[in-house]
Design a protein that fits this description.
It is built from four helices and five strands. It is α/β, with parallel strands linked by helices. It has one domain: Transcription Regulator spoIIAA, CATH 3.30.750.24. Helix 1 links the parallel strand 2 and strand 3. The model has no long low-confidence stretch (mean pLDDT about 95).
Length: about 120
């Protein structure tokens, strides 16, 4: 099956910024995860934060979400202390309320998300 979903990213000091686009399938996660992990390993921060900005289309199957949880857990093991998810709709909010960990915040406003990350 073809890979679906796209993630672009950058580091701004100790914040790993991810822009997440389109609907994901498992193959899409499998393509993106090694690149994300390598960026974390190359940066080698001790304590860092993450912000994921999701467009309107971002969703995935339960299997895809489980793969996302796996990379989210890996990020925590590698020093991520807080994650802000900036979402576009209530379905995304409901998914994250169920699957994101206790060190995550869910926001509809990017400015509020950045403010929360700095608290």
């Amino acid at each position: 099956m073809d890979s679906h979903g796209k993630i672009s990213f950058t580091w701004k000091e100790d914040v790993f910024e991810l822009i997440v686009e389109d609907e994901f399938n498992e193959e899409g996660i499998d393509v993106n995860v090694p690149v994300l992990k390598q960026s974390v390993l190359n940066k080698a921060p001790k304590n860092w934060k993450r912000i994921e900005m999701w467009d309107q289309k971002v969703l995935g199957s339960p299997e895809t979400i489980k793969k996302c949880q796996s990379i989210w857990n890996w990020f925590t093991i590698k020093g991520c202390t807080k994650t802000a998810f900036v979402v576009s709709n209530n379905i995304q909010v409901q998914v994250l309320e169920k699957y994101a960990d206790k060190n995550s915040g869910i926001f509809l406003d990017i400015e509020k998300a950045y403010k929360w990350l700095q608290e």
